[in-house]
Design a protein that fits this description.
Blueprint: E1 3-5, E2 11-13
Antiparallel strand pairs: 1-2
Length: about 60
């Protein structure tokens, strides 16, 4: 089996697969527990009053 070195410096075997030793065999466990989310205890605000939308004046069109 032949092998060659790519420009990045990794060895690639003739079958096209990278060397399996480049990666750990399994995922590493987390060293700490994930933070728990605490939601705010405030109720939602009332909605803002609706704004007026200016419409074109019907008398100004011909």
């Amino acid at each position: 089996m032949s092998a060659y070195i790519q420009l990045s410096g990794t060895v690639v075997h003739g079958d096209g697969l990278a060397h399996a030793g480049d990666f750990p065999p399994q995922r590493q466990p987390a060293k700490a527990q994930a933070a728990k989310i605490k939601l705010p205890q405030e109720p939602p605000r009332t909605p803002a009053p609706r704004a007026a939308i200016p419409l074109p004046d019907a008398s100004s069109t011909s």
